TrEMBL record:
Its cofactor is [4Fe-4S] cluster. It comes from Methanobacterium paludis (strain DSM 25820 / JCM 18151 / SWAN1). This is DNA primase large subunit PriL. Regulatory subunit of DNA primase, an RNA polymerase that catalyzes the synthesis of short RNA molecules used as primers for DNA polymerase during DNA replication. Stabilizes and modulates the activity of the small subunit, increasing the rate of DNA synthesis, and conferring RNA synthesis capability. The DNA polymerase activity may enable DNA primase to also catalyze primer extension after primer synthesis. May also play a role in DNA repair. It comes from the Archaea. GO terms for cellular component: primosome complex. GO terms for molecular function: 4 iron, 4 sulfur cluster binding; DNA-directed RNA polymerase activity; metal ion binding. GO terms for biological process: DNA replication, synthesis of primer. Belongs to the eukaryotic-type primase large subunit family. Binds 1 [4Fe-4S] cluster. InterPro entries: DNA_primase_C, DNA_primase_lsu_PriL.
Length: 448
């Protein structure tokens, strides 16, 4: 028998819904709850050194859930022991209620396409992965199989069943094993279908090695993430028909937003480990020769690549996430520019200006290339740049000097500051510091 409740992994399961029904109403979600405090304190290895660490109310608990994900993702000094209770299934009831509170609050206030919504869905996926990681190998396998069987009722499914997951990029086709358009999740079925096509290898072992439990787990996690997103969509649609949203939920939504904004300040706009390369308005005086050349407008070959593959990643990272190479943590544009204000008002005008100065102007003969600019910043292949599409493509990091020299050799006319750097972005970060120092010395010559 598996020792952990299904609702601890999937709050949207029947068990999870039953917990919500028993709770009845939102009354008391902001009150101090001794049972909750006790469950947290009793968690093995849980740090309880200061009061802020222990959630006191359902409300606190919900915010800790989001905080855990944000800190785990961004903070190199993240202290796991402050959040150990999130992996303790004794907190099941509080966890399920917190999940519903968060989904409803975010869906009502911000809608399903918001950054808050995305963080909620991602944090649920991350929690499931971590909770499964706490189980023994056998329990983990049994639980995943049990849950998948309740979510999918047959072992080989047409891939179109996963359409939502595939189209929202929560699952990649290459993660799945397909045979005649059917996904194979069962070992026996895999052996039966593939044994005559596999030579010199044991098909059963191959299944374990290549697919086995990992894919099942991945599908389970992605399905629950997708269902969480769908649930928020439904709540959002229903809320449009209601007269007055519950003020408790609106308050929680605002607090979630505060947590995300604080994290953008700490980790996005120059956090503790990025103090020397904070995001700040662009300083064209610090641009390397290659960037200056593209900004003047490309007069001969390489126009499209120079604007789309070279300039777009450079300008967007230089403005929003200049420490990408030293931090080595992948981010989305909205992690550092939540309302896309810098993107719309500073980055795109600079890229479009350079595109207009080309001969011939880029969008005059190829207006469809705007889609590629959006795609390179992570917003998919769409004509308009919208938060809901973010994540469909990846935010391209700036090209290295080596690649510039190979693919766009006419751009590279190194100056003295190009020595010892490997990427135009590194050039920019260094030169920006130098320019700032020079400017402050010129402003107050007597102080130096
Ligand atoms: S060396 Fe690098 S930074 Fe300098 S011009 Fe060439 S590509 Fe640009």
């Amino acid at each position: 028998m598996i020792m952990v409740s299904v609702a601890f992994i999937n709050p949207l399961s029947d068990d999870g819904k039953q917990i919500v029904r028993e709770m009845g109403s939102l009354e008391g979600v902001s009150d101090i709850n001794e049972e909750l405090i006790d469950a947290v304190i009793q968690t093995k290895s849980q740090e309880i050194s200061d009061d802020d660490v222990v959630p006191q109310t359902y409300f606190d608990f919900a915010l800790r859930r989001i905080e855990w994900y944000i800190k785990k993702k961004n903070d190199k000094k993240f202290n796991y022991k402050k959040y150990t209770f999130l992996l303790n299934d004794n907190i099941l009831k509080f966890d399920v209620i917190a999940f519903y509170l968060l989904c409803q609050a975010i869906a009502i206030k911000f809608g399903p396409n918001s950054r808050e919504s995305r963080v909620m869905v991602e944090s649920q996926g991350e929690l499931i992965e971590n909770r499964l990681g706490e189980l023994s190998k056998a329990d983990r396998k049994d639980l995943v199989t049990l849950m998948l069987n309740s979510l999918i009722s047959y072992s080989s499914i047409k891939w179109t069943f996963f359409e939502d997951l595939l189209s929202s990029r929560k699952l990649n086709l290459q993660d799945l094993i397909l045979d005649n358009g059917e996904i194979i999740l069962d070992k026996e079925e895999f052996v039966e279908r593939f044994s005559d096509r596999i030579e010199h290898r044991d098909p059963g072992k191959m299944f374990d090695l290549m697919i086995g439990d990992r894919i099942k787990e991945l599908i389970l996690i992605r399905m629950i993430m997708q269902n969480t997103e769908n649930y928020m969509q439904t709540v959002h649609e229903k809320s449009g028909r209601e007269i007055e949203p519950n003020p408790v939920l609106l308050e929680l939504a605002d607090k979630v937003s505060d947590v995300l904004s604080a994290s953008a300040q700490s980790y996005g706009y120059g956090g503790s480990f990025a103090s020397d390369t904070k995001a700040s308005p662009l300083n064209p005086k610090a641009f390397p020769p290659c960037v200056k050349k593209v900004l003047e407008g490309m007069k001969s070959g390489g126009r499209n690549d120079a604007i789309i593959l070279f300039l777009t990643p450079f300008i967007s990272y230089a403005r929003l996430y200049p420490s990408v190479f030293s931090e080595n943590i992948s981010k989305r544009v909205s992690d550092v520019d939540p309302n896309l204000a810098a993107l719309q008002n500073e980055i795109l005008p600079m890229i479009f200006g350079a595109a207009d100065r080309c001969n011939p102007p880029l969008f005059e003969d190829q207006p469809q290339e705007k889609v590629n600019i959006n795609a390179k910043m992570g917003f998919g292949m769409h004509e308009t740049l919208e938060l809901k599409d973010e994540g469909e493509t990846i935010w391209y990091t700036p090209m290295s000097c080596e690649k510039v020299k190979i693919h766009l050799p006419s751009l590279c006319k190194p100056d003295a500051d190009c020595k010892k750097i490997g990427n135009p972005l590194t050039y920019y970060n260094r030169k920006k510091r130098m320019v700032k120092k020079e400017e402050s010395q010129n402003e107050s010559p007597n102080e130096s």
